[in-house]
Amino acid sequence: MMLAAALLAIAAPGAGQAVSSAPLANTQLADPQAEAAAQALMEELRCLTCQSQSIADSDAPMAGDMRHQVRSRIAAGESPDEVRAWLVERYGDYVTYRPGFDAATWPLFALPVLFILLAGVVLVRRLGRRGE
Amino acid sequence: MIAELGLAALWLAAGLCVLQFVSGAIGVGGGADSAVGALARPAAIVQSLLLVISFACLLRVFAVTDFSVALVAANSNPDKPLIYRISGAWGNHEGSMLLWVTILGLCSALVALFEKRMDDRFMKAALAAQGFVALGFFGFLLLSSNPFARLDPPAEIGAGLNPLLQDIGLAMHPPTLYLGYVGLSVAFSFVVAALITRQAGPELARVMRPWVLAAWVALTLGIAAGSYWAYYELGWGGWWFWDPVENASLMPWLAATALLHSVSVLAARDALRTWTILLGVVAFSMSMVGTFLVRSGILTSVHAFAVDPERGAFILVLLTIYIGGAFALFALRAGSLAEGKRFAMVSREGALVVNNVMLSAILAVVLLGTLYPLLAEAFGTRVSIGPPYYNPVTAIFAVPMFLVLLIGPLLRWKRDSLSRVAVPLAIVCAILAGSVSVLVLFTGAGVLATIGLALAAALALASWLPLRGRQLRRVPLALWGSMLAHFGLAVSLCGMASESAFSVERLVAVRTGDQVEIGPFLARLESVEPVAGPNWTALEGKIAVTGNGVDTLLRPQARYFTQPFQGTSEAALLTLWNGQLYGILGEAAGDGRWQLRLWWKPFVTLIWYGGILIALGGVLSIFGHLRSSVRRRKIREEFARRRAERDAA
Q1: Min Cα separation A30/chain B (Å)
Q2: Using a CB-CB distance cutoff of 8 angstroms, which residues of chain A are in contact with residue B355?
Q3: Which member of A110, B124, B254, B405 has the greatest number of CB atoms within 10 A?
Q4: Global pTM value
Q5: Regarding beta strands B579-588 and B594-602, do their DSSP bridges make them parallel or antiparallel, or are they unpaired?
Q6: Taking the domain A18-99, which CATH number applies?
Q7: What digits encode the pLDDT tens for the residues B16-31?
Q8: What stretches of B563-619 adopt beta strand conformation (E)?
């Protein structure tokens, strides 16, 4: 079913034109749920040839190729996490705006936990005392 | 000639800045009556005049496109409309640094001219601090970023301005933002003076407050304008991407927001003394960090025009001296400041402490997320941190802050009980519960969007609850200001959450005459035709939009600039009361079809209307506080006069 939808989506723009190498770069998937999943993922992937843009927002050819990859893989039934993992394997952590939890990124999660603790301590110390 | 005049004025201003610093320092040391010690105020005033002359010279060489000035040749060309030739003066590194220093000089002059509420020694210390800060940036301008350097022989043709920056949004965004960045220098100088002269009481807070508010208003407007500019000019339909440059402007805003709330506690209740001083240092430090991030070229993004490690090193040294120096002074003196009055957990102060702690935590998260990729890169790994990180992590702190904001302004100073505010508490809880259930049952809004919309709904009402039991005519202006600002926050939050929850996007390839559905509308591509502007040509699409009582044309363009050669996409926006329809003309598909990208974004405009309301609230508060300060002075004078009469009699 998903595959059929994908084939349909690929076939539609191909009618009467030379099929470009990345037909799904600018064509939404027919299945709205799959398209929503692909869109959400594309907004979290970095365009590697641009400056601070997601592939969903970029006109760069490479971003188009990556959008095609994301849409066709999602349409073929892969989960967004699998697609992301595949891209990270190819391009490194830099490609995802959602940093994972690993040797290079653990402080990004440890420090906010520390901030929560600190905020708690400050609030308890400041507010725990009675007035006067 | 004009360029030399500008440079001479700049050098003279730098000289007067040295005088301002030395004179201020002598004044603090007890020599206020000596010949040099009395010169700090006049030096600051004349210095600002010279800076204005210098900046006017820069505007002039840009307006007439004088290609014998290197900066003009590198950044301008005569085909641009006048307004963009002029705004090009600060659309580059050197020009924007001159603007920075000019605003800093104007702040010093305003302090020197109008601030009479603190004693002479304090003012000398503040002016010395202000001069010391300015001195570093003068050095930076004159030694490594001279905007008036000549080009010999003159260029035949200019390189032009990045066409993305050729926009009215750019004309206004940096000056407004700089006004905020640099305005915080006054708060910085005041807290440094407070540390030096050991005066950190309510009087300091009352004196600081209008300056902090003014800088904060400018920052708010600057950020809102920048966000709207990115939204319609970059053609990606988003309004905030947690880009490091955006964060660079958000961080001083967060610190300034915390500062103005802690200043209000210090002014009203003489509590949170050291904390307020610390925030004063942090706020301007964030401005300088922001300037460093954007100006050093350490970030490579649309905004970071300058890529030059030598300049980066210079700013980094300045940053270390100023921030390090201020923190060292703080560490030396903080212990000797009296701590200030105490208060109970359930009290206005208690609520404001929650506000301050949460804002500081959000600031820390944003700072971490902004600096971490730079640090990781230095160690050889590259990571990207974007909305999927910032949104939930900042929400951890923002949500409790908003919850406390619902009820905090109703609490009494010093000590209160929740049972006294039971009725409003029940009302806001009912609104929260009601909106969450409606959203969960009837919409597919995500978790954060649902929380955001529910908080916005509750805050929209709660922000006006302080009026309860008050006579409308007797409500102080400053209170109107704070209620309006909180209401603006609710409006803005509603726009943000609504945009993220309910936006609809269509991406289609269509022939002329084809029709597509987008949200409640039907869009039909009528034609695509070439059009020409002063320094660009474009393909313009005409898209007829009908439905929902609307019958109009959208005209998005794909523009091609010649100087420098670059294409941009000019989005077409249809603004309705309940949202915006956003259209972009993409590439030709090759078979007579065109790529169209269409969004329907319900209530997205509330984001920026909210920002304007927040800023307006700040303006009302400034007037309110200034008025009551004048009133207080009159009462004091009247009191002194009567006592003098009595003594005489």
Answers
A1: 11
A2: none
A3: B124
A4: 0.91
A5: antiparallel
A6: 1.10.8.640
A7: 999 999 998 888 877 6
A8: 565-570, 572-576, 579-588, 594-602
